[in-house]
Structures are given as C-alpha cells and as structure tokens.
Amino acid sequence: MQTKGTVMRFLRKKRVFVLLFVSLLILLFYNTAWLGKWVYPIRHDQDIALSARSYGVDPFMVAAIIRVETNFNPDKVSRKGAVGLMQLMPDTAEWVVQKAGYAEETSQLLHRADVNIEVGAWYLKSLYNQFDNNPIAVLAAYNAGPGNARKWLDNGTWDGTLKGLGNIPFGETRHYVQRVLYYYDKYAKLYEDRFST
After folding, report:
1. For each of the chain's 197 residues, which pLDDT tens digit applies?
2. Contact status, residue 47 vs residue 55, Cβ threshold 8 Å
3. CB count, 10 Å around CB of 196?
4. What is the dihedral of CA 65, 30, 24, 67, to 10 degrees?
5. Which are the catalytic amino acids?
6. pTM (2 d.p.)
7. Which whole-number Å values give the CA distances from 140 to 19, 45, 161, 178, in the listed order?
8. Which residues, in sequence order, are bridge partners of residue 83?
C-alpha cells in the first residue's frame, strides 16, 4: 500500500510534467516562426544567396531544390550518379562548365557545397531561359531533363502549368514539382528577409 508521501511525490512530478508540457505548447504556438525555421532549415544560405544573385534566380527556389534533392547533404550521390547538394549529373555539370567558362576542374569539385550551388544556379538560369521563365516547366526540366520537358510541351502532352501537372507522364516529376513548390512556399514565408538585397 502506498503511503501518503509517495502519492504526493507522484502528483508533484506529474504536475511538473504537465506544467512543462503546457509551457512547451505555449512556446510553440507563440513562436511559430522559430518552430518553422527549426522544421524547415536553410543551410549554406550565403552560398545560395551569392550564386542566386549572380545568375538572377530566386534563392528560395535554389533552397527548395536543394531540400528536395538532398535535404542539404552535400555528400549525397544518387543511384544514377547525380552529385552534391543540387544533384547534378556529371554530363550536365560538364556542359555547364563548358558553357559558363568555368575552370575545367570545376566538375571535379561538385562535392563542395559552394561549387555545386554555383553550377546548379547557372544551370537553373539556363533552364529559365529555355522555358520562357516558366518556373513550373523549369522544375519539370530540372527533374526529367530539358529534352523530356520540351517534348511534353511541344507535342501538347502538358501545357506547362501547375494545373495541368497531372498530364506529365513521369510520376516522379509530378511529385518533384509539387514538393519543390511546397518547400519554396515554406521558405519564402519563413525567411522573407533572409535573402533581401
């Protein structure tokens, strides 16, 4: 049989636990920006800002692509051979190096966050140029390749809109575009002042 002292200690511990739990809930509700930034962090933000500014692309789009591609893990290599934060295919990186006039060793440094973001931002800008600044088409092209995206647009399979996304033949690409846009919205709201000029 429990003594009165044991019961009182148990109730005090329970009361402390409830008080801590309620305090945590209040903190979370009153500081949703802090919680949002904890759940949706942006890493390598200086490299993102610098490269995005250099090529005139939206830094939140770069951050969202990185989040979807690697969750900010610079060491990730895909099964298909895509490398680094922005998951650049070696052939694509070689093409960018030639077109952008980067040093030849640049493609050998794609595991470095700053280099990968720089090459990725340049490539993203080239996709914006190829797809008339249509961000939905750019994201589809980033995932499926510009040849596939162009074919879908040219033959009428897809109209290049978010509303028509269901017409993209690749389920992975449909899902990819949706995920990047989701993170883009989160980042743009949570970090609206992060990349201001």
Report:
1. 556 667 666 656 777 777 777 776 666 555 577 778 888 999 999 999 999 999 999 999 999 999 999 999 999 999 999 999 999 999 999 999 999 998 888 878 899 999 999 999 999 999 999 999 999 999 999 999 999 999 999 999 999 999 999 999 999 999 999 999 999 999 999 998 887 65
2. no
3. 8
4. 0
5. 69
6. 0.83
7. 49, 24, 10, 10
8. 77, 88
Alpha-helical segments (H) within 71-133: 90-100, 113-130
Q: 78-113: b or e for each residue (b if 16 or more CB lie within 10 Å)?
A: eeeebbbbbbbbeebbeebbeeeebeeebbebbeeb
Q: Tokens for 55?
A: 């090529």
Return the exposure string of 7-38: e unless at least 16 CB atoms fall within 10 Å of the residue's CB, then b: eeeeeeeeeeeeeeeeeeeeeeeeeeeeeebe
- Which residue in this structure is represented by tokens 């989040």? 67
Q: Check if the beta carbon of residue 119 is closer than 8 Å to that of residue 110.
A: yes
> What are the Cα distances from residue 86, in Å, to 8, 65, 122, 158, 189?
57, 7, 11, 25, 22
> What distance lies between CA 21 and its chain's CA centroid?
32
